[in-house]
UniProtKB/TrEMBL annotation:
Matches recorded under Pfam families: SEC-C
Classification via SUPFAM superfamilies: Sec-C motif
InterPro entries hit by this protein: SEC_C_motif (IPR004027)
Protein name: SEC-C domain-containing protein
Domain of life of the native organism: Bacteria
Amino acid sequence: MKIGRNEKCWCGSGKKFKRCHNGRENETPVSKGEAINHSQKNALRKCCYVPTDLKHECSKKIINAHTVSKSSSLKEIADESNHVLGLKINLANIIKNEGKLVPEKIGINQASTFKGFCSTHDKSLFSCIEDREFVGDDEQCLALMYRSVAKELYAKEGGLNNSEFAKSTDKGKHLLGQLSIQNFVADQQKALNASLAELSELKSELDDQLLGKSVGNLSHLIIDSTSPMPVAVSSIVAPINDFNGNLIQDLGDLSIVAEHLVFNSFSSDGKGYVVFSWSKNSTKVLSFINSLLALEPNKIFSALIRFFFGVAENTFTSPVWWSGLSDEQKDKTKNLIMSGVNPFKPTDNNLLVDDGINFSGWEISNLRKIHF
């Protein structure tokens, strides 16, 4: 490949070739320590995802905000040492576990936290779910949804930062290696930017509802039980396939605006809840929800387990519940956790379909449809 020194670099950086990839194969490769250091700094960046109109109220203290309540939910399922099982997703841990995501003990002070809100707004925005019993009113459901969307924005923005760093990992590699890395990162960034644009639009809608600028346009499904939920989660996903394996939406086509589903699983006052939330006009998400509701009641908990572990990383498990699982159930859960981790492995269309491996430990008492 011939390119002039003063021409724009082939990698798309916008820099001149002589200041970018000229002689890249002779540069010192990025070390493991440099990569880990970048990953750690990226995970500790601070911001407050409060609506712009409220930014002037921000305190100077950005805290470790919990996406799953520590006092009620995490403490409810923790062991005697106040630990739950969760995924420690950082580069150092991934290297240690040879690329595998493994459930490990995490203290409830650290579980589910991210530096995405200041102390003032973490209190004011989420006191409705932290300081009073969950009843499933509009304010509480909106707060749950808002926090999950903020956490996902934080994660996606972090992913974009990591992808920028990944561009430098072609140092010391031959031209084909450089091309492979730059093309992979470029494709990854296209997907990340598309997802960030969609999430930002959703957050903007939630901002307006939070500030009273628009009427609520959200639907919710609340599943509850008289016992605590052994798996706590707070996340958002654009579902691809439903619980029967049917295609919901093709996320490979970036021209299509993805429809998102927010979901939270938690405990409050000794009771367990699962809350699904989505925009009322998201017909594809409603179709996904209906495929869950069509299952036999005694199959829903197992379906939820497949869903939580199969699509969400921000998931925390009761060590007692986990220790009671059979080897087959544990292997199934570990396989669910690893689904989608390898970007070169095709998506399993039957990820959520019943395969005969069932789970117990939570009896559903009631299902509530709100603003369907």
